[in-house]
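Backbone-to-sequence.
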């Protein structure tokens, strides 16, 4: 298991690599936000990341996320300073409609909205909680059959439909590149995502809040930032 100092060093290194990628693309240093993906990590490692100041955390399964929240809550309650950082949990994995009701009270944002029915379910539950939930629309840019995400050809239409819902705030799009050996092989997927994102943003069918591109993981976050990512979701490179 990664120790606290491993995690600290890894976080520093990931942020340096993010900054270098931004510089190469002549983007500003803070152009991309880091979501620390805690999935499959022991709770002690998650608590260390929180102690090191990370508050944007990602999980890919509803049940895991609920368990995390309970354990992290206990950890924070025991902590001597008693400070409770406002942690934002990001749901980054495939989401079933029957889990939305359990998820919404505890989640900050959902990165994986890929059908209108799912968006409508989030909208209904959000209305009951009297909140507006930030969401990203997941697009299957690589065309792999086993991948989640709306097909490229249906993306603009779905974005327009999601935008009409009053209790979700469509922040932009999310995509996952195929598993690759060399990060360069992920580049075409990210370029495609950015083009689709820009087409939708320019279409006039979505609001001004549509400005985020969630793309890039441990294997390829630098390439993603070079191609315009504003949110990267990184797990194993931090907890290695
Ligand atoms: C696991 C996961 C990540 C992070 O993957 P790493 O390779 O551990 O950085 C990012 N996004 C999604 C949707 C994931 O499921």
């Amino acid at each position: 298991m990664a120790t606290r100092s491993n995690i600290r060093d890894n976080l520093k290194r990931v942020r340096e690599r993010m900054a270098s990628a931004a510089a190469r693309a002549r983007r500003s240093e803070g152009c991309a936000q880091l979501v620390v993906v805690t999935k499959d990590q022991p709770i002690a490692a998650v608590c260390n990341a929180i102690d090191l100041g990370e508050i944007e955390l990602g999980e890919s399964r509803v049940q895991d996320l609920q368990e995390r929240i309970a354990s992290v809550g206990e950890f924070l309650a025991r902590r001597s300073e008693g400070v409770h950082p406002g942690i934002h949990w990001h749901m980054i994995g495939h989401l079933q409609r029957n889990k939305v009701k359990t998820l919404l009270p505890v989640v900050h944002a959902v990165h994986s909205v890929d059908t209108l029915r799912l968006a409508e379910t989030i909208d209904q539950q959000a209305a009951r909680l009297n909140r507006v939930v930030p969401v990203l629309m997941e697009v299957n840019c690589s065309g792999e059959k086993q991948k989640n995400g709306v097909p490229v050809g249906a993306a603009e239409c779905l974005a327009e439909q999601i935008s009409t819902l009053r209790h979700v705030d469509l922040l932009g799009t999310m995509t996952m590149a195929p598993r690759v050996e060399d990060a360069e092989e992920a580049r075409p997927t990210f370029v495609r995502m950015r083009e689709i994102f820009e087409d939708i943003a320019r279409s006039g069918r979505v609001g001004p809040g549509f400005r985020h591109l969630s793309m890039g993981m441990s294997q390829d976050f630098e390439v993603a930032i070079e191609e315009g990512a504003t949110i990267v979701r990184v797990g194993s490179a931090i907890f290695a």
